[in-house]
Amino acid sequence: MAPRGQFFDAPRHGLGYNAPMLELSVSGHLEVAHFMSDFPEGHPNRRMHGHSYFIILTLATLDDCDVVEDFDSLKTKMDSILKTYDHTCVNDWDIPTQKPTMENMCRFFWKIFSKEFPHLSKVELQRPTLGMRVSYIGKTEKRGSTS
């Protein structure tokens, strides 16, 4: 097998978006419940309710390799981690603001998956039935500061 690619975040290193890159994305599925306690009394989302989500992890490297990451290994690790959170209540997760929004869920999953996958480039949550999606691009040790 050819060596894996070198991590490089071209836009944040001043090379613009034209640097040749390879991206690999893998998706998983998650069923979770939550409630929005700070919503006004009578709002339907104030009560416990559930959602189906697709989560997409994207890994990126420079265009200098044949394999970004072993797909089967990536999918197996991702599914194993997602099982921990599937059919749980987001309000019970360790989300700093305690607001179980899609935005905060993306940040939460970034922290988890960036430890497992150093080439992680983006975490995206989707609710396809409503046409909603949120993406998060955080920082890693390899990427450094996002500012």
Strand arrangement, largest sheet? 3-1-2-4-5
**Which class in CATH terms?**
Alpha Beta
> What is the CATH third-level topology name?
Tetrahydropterin Synthase, Chain A
Query: Could you say which overall geometry the principal axes of the C-alpha atoms support?
Result: elongated
Estimate the helix proportion, in percent.
Answer: 10-25%
The unreliable regions are: 1-8, 143-147
Query: Helix/strand/pairing class, anyone?
Result: alpha+beta
The CATH H-level homologous superfamily: 6-pyruvoyl tetrahydropterin synthase/QueD
| Distance between the first and last residues' Cα | 36 Å
Order of helices and strands: EEHEHEE
CATH architecture type: 2-Layer Sandwich
Estimate the strand proportion: 25-35%
- Compute the average pLDDT: 84
Number of helices: 2
Structurally, the number of domains stands at 1
The radius of gyration over CA amounts to 17 Å
Sheet having the most strands: 5 strands, mixed
